[in-house]
Amino acid sequence: MHPYIELGNLKLQLYYPMFFIGFAAALLISYALRERFGIGKKDIFGAGLFGLIGLFFGAKFFYFLSKLPEVFGDFCAFRTKLDADFSGTMDYLLGGMVFYGGLLGFLFGMWIYARRMGLNFMKFADIATPGFPLAHAFGRVGCFLNGCCYGVEYHGPLAVHYPADTLDRELCAVPRFPVQLIEAGLNIICFTVLLYLALKWNKKACGRLLGIYLSYYIIVRFILEFFRGDEIRGKVGILSTSQIISLLLIPASVWLLVSRKGREEHPDN
User: Where in the sequence is the domain holding 171, given as residue range(s)?
Assistant: First the structure.
């Protein structure tokens, strides 16, 4: 694992270039599909920009929310820590990102763009959805290289032994389950299926691609959370924050799969 790349005196965490490579790849997929879904070039990049802004704020906001139970659980200790180290405490509250927050933020950003331009949001959802698992796969490889979002202690086949120069020095103490790479592989499978369906359905998808993706990822993420070893993602009772969000998203995924409203609004020509 190589958590950093060095650019002169600057050390850059590898997660960020991996994320932007994934985002660029997803944007290129959407650009290649644009004519099949009847979306113009400028709208692809406009919606992508709005989505990227929403992704950043959504991922940070949900990370902040995941920390609130700890803050309110011992508020006096939190106030003491805040007074002693303000910048360190703010990094604790805002230093990470939550995927579900980024996904919802991205969709919200695209919705704002579609609304401002008088366009149908479901078209943007359809054309962007195959790129979600592709970008996420790159992001999870970045997590693996970075030494974050790591797995539980594991001594079986494919166990990962982190070196001492990872971000979390305690990781090198025991071998870990390669949960980041497993999730990356499952995302690539999802991307392949969604891309095939996007090419087959074209304008007839009307939200079903997003419904399929959410349904698939909800199951995958809920299960994989049991193999995560990092406590930073937050827990409420026996469930992690991401497992709770997964459960809350089930109605939305079912509605996207079964609703016919959007399908009747998108003629083939």
Answer: 4-264
Above 70 in pLDDT, residue 53?
A: yes
Look at residue 70 and tell me if it is in a domain.
yes
In this structure, is residue 269 part of a structural domain? no
Mean pLDDT to the nearest integer, 108-122: 93
Run of H or E residues at 87? helix 86-94
Q: Calculate the CA dihedral of residues 199, 203, 208, 210 and round it to 10 degrees.
A: 70
- Asked, for residue 108, whether it belongs to a domain, the answer is yes
Rounded to the nearest 5°, which phi and psi values hold at 14?
Answer: -65, -20
SS3 assignment, position 163: coil
**CA proximity to 177, closest of 131, 226, 231, 214:** 226
Give the span between the Cα atoms of 215 and 211, in whole angstroms. Answer: 6
Q: How far apart are CA 24 and CA 226, in angstroms?
A: 31
Supply 46's token pair.
Answer: 């406009």
Considering only CA atoms, give the Rg of the chain.
20
pTM for the model stands at 0.84
